[in-house]
Amino acid sequence: MDDFKQLTVDSIRAGLRAKRFSARELAREALRVAEAENRASGVYLSFTPERALAAADRVDAELAAGAEIGPLAGVPLAVKDVIMTRGEKTTCASRALEQFVAPYDATAVERVERAGAVIVGKTNCDEFAMGSSNENSAFFPVRNPAAPDRVPGGSSGGSAAAVAGGYAPISLGSDTGGSIRQPASFCGAVGIMPTYGRVSRYGLVAFASSLDHIGPFSRTVKDSALLLGSIAGPDPLDSTAASAPVPDYAGELSAQVRGLKIGIPKEYYGEGLEHAVGTKVRAGVDLLRGLGCEPVEISLPHTRYAIASYYLICTAEASSNLARYDGVRYSRRSEGSGTLREMYRNSRAEGFGPEVTRRIILGTYVLSSGYYDAYYRKAQEVRALIARDFAEAFETVDAIITPVSPFPAFKLGEKTSDPLQMYLSDIYTITGSLAGIAGMSVPCGTTPEGLPIGMQILTNHFQEQTMLNLGHAFEQAGGFEG
Ligand code: GLN
Fold first, then answer.
1. First vs last Cα of the chain: how many Å apart?
2. 0.85 exceeded by the pTM?
């Protein structure tokens, strides 16, 4: 078989057509490699072998019959464990849902399978997607494929490491404040947060509903374009899923980016940005300039309020969304409690880890009467200002280029004792989340020690094609190697 760890959607398609391997052989190989290395990698929380082989057999049968195969036919795919997969565990990396089996498929899951993808397993993440290092998983950490003593980023650390570490060519993650882009940058993968509403959230376990997105990870920009094209579009089961038509992202992918204006926001290149990261991202901008793009300095003046605003809004929404885990309908029930009230309290105390508990408490506080105006309403007002910053910028530029994170992957344990330090990992990704626009991380080289660095490409609502084209042009010109 071709080198399994390097496969892409295109190379799999070519291999299947040329009968170098069958979809079943590929699925078995994906499961074999991932299972054998999972103790060391920590990437998967569970495997879905029966489901994978059944999907692979469908593809092999289509091939044997000479039928049309889907755009993701036979491609092993990993799914973050906050996304529902019918009949399979969906734990959100939480003790509270350790035994929970999803009763239905997320729309994105149904769509990738319709496109022929082979779901091999559910990936590790921070508990309920809250975190930036994957260390908030209740089960075990994920190790960065580029440096095993370092974190893969989070919260979609398992999905990023699955792709970068060679376990699956594509995966699905979720991004609320950076959880796809930041781990993509830490691991050296492509990762996309689509425009809010571009991909249905039906079946994504809710963390902060006004900020949650499902999105792709891959090794090439084209594969993310294919995966995004397969999952995007309206959905009667999610009223926030936009009805805007879905372009043929992969079909229209073009490396012709001459004449595009790219905004370089000065607030993203200042204090706190590590030298090695800034150097590579600036070199990335230079490369795009060489391809005919026109960099323009811009200002997004409300950037410095983004973290505060995000941590008020996301905790408020989390406190409400997580109220359902009371040990009655959902989640683990504590044994031996005397009264109903004790049962609720003990179930939640036993089920949730410290970061989730902190956020529920914070969120309950900021929504409580007397504090709502001072915190929650204020944060919403700031959110509107941040969105306006972007709207004004996009009147003059086609895209905005920034670092993804101020620093590369840090050591396991390095930031666990200081939640505020951890929150700073997302200082450049949270703004785009609050504005509801599209964002992507593409690799742009490594630090002198070999740690991957990501460059963020942000575009206006539903302008994913421009974002993908810039990423593709950058990749074709060798930008991923830095
Ligand atoms: N790291 C951020 C947080 O902890 C973002 C998480 C996410 O995007 N799900 O909230």
1. 30
2. yes
